[in-house]
Amino acid sequence: MSFNWSKEAQKQWDNRAGFWNEKSAGMWDSGSRKEIIPFIEKHLEKGSSILDIGCGDGYGTQKLHKAGYNATGVDISREMISLASKLAENKPISFFQADINDMSFEGEGFDGIMCINVLEWTEDPHEALRNLSNAVKKDGLLCIGLLGPTAGPRTNSYPRLHGNKTICNTMMPWEFKQLASESNLNYLDGFGVYKKGVEEQHYKGLPIELKQALTFMWVFMLQKVGE
């Protein structure tokens, strides 16, 4: 029986929607994602249009809106989009369901993209990144969070070592940086979200590759260059 990545991914994320909804506020307000919106504010002017890819239940999208951005959310899961639409009721935030690898954004012209822990859950990360690049204007910015080497969710990709199909396609941060450079995306800035127990004294002064080796997540700020 053939394996349909998109259908299986939608099914699995539909099943996780309730669990995700229970923890998303904590992640964005005080957990692993708390520094992402301030990081975006550092680089992108208020009033800019931002496409939130893999928006989940829309909590992060709503935080973008509260921060003064024109936000749009996209997720592969219908259940997630349903939760997001309810959360953002009476707010000018649009949500729609779609698979990143099947989307065509040519000419959409967003000022920026927020894409947190999404590309490692795609069948073809290179094609997905190309689609993201097509969605932003020239010189547009892409804020992308990638699971680091110490991230627990990376274990979801382990079954592939037994030849089994999985919807998790993990990458190392340095691999993704190379992938971005091959897609005409320049690395502007970044920061690490470190595994619990890792203190600043452990990574201060280290080369970026060694800093990334200690992370739960590395957050990239990339800029589209060329045509």
Q: What's this, in brief?
A:
The protein is of the alpha/beta class and 227 residues long. It has 8 helices and 7 strands.
What does the model show?
- InterPro entries: Methyltransf_11, SAM-dependent_MTases_sf.
- Pfam families: Methyltransf_11.
- It comes from Virgibacillus indicus.
- This is SAM-dependent methyltransferase.
- One of its GO terms (molecular function) is S-adenosylmethionine-dependent methyltransferase activity.
- The structure is a single chain.
- The mean pLDDT is 93.
- Helix 5 links the parallel strand 4 (110-116) and strand 5.
- Helix 1 runs parallel beside helix 4 (78-87).
- The protein has a seven-stranded mixed sheet, with helices on both faces.
- It has eight helices and seven strands, in the order ααβαβαββαβαβααβ.
- With 227 residues, it is of the alpha/beta class.
- It has helices spanning 5-29, 36-43, 59-66, 78-87, 125-135, 173-182, 200-203, 208-213, and strands spanning 49-53, 70-75, 94-97, 110-116, 136-147, 185-194, 215-224.
- The protein has one domain: Rossmann fold (3-Layer(aba) Sandwich), CATH 3.40.50.150.
Features:
single chain, 227 residues, alpha/beta, Rossmann fold, 7-stranded mixed β-sheet, 8 helices, 7 strands
Strand content: 15-25%
Q: Residue share in helices?
A: 25-40%
Whole-number tally of structural domains? 1
- Provide the succession of SSEs: HHEHEHEEHEHEHHE
Q: What do we call the CATH homologous superfamily?
A: Vaccinia Virus protein VP39
State the major sheet: 7 strands, mixed
CATH class: Alpha Beta
Protein name: SAM-dependent methyltransferase
Keywords: Methyltransferase, Transferase
GO molecular function: S-adenosylmethionine-dependent methyltransferase activity
Organism: Virgibacillus indicus
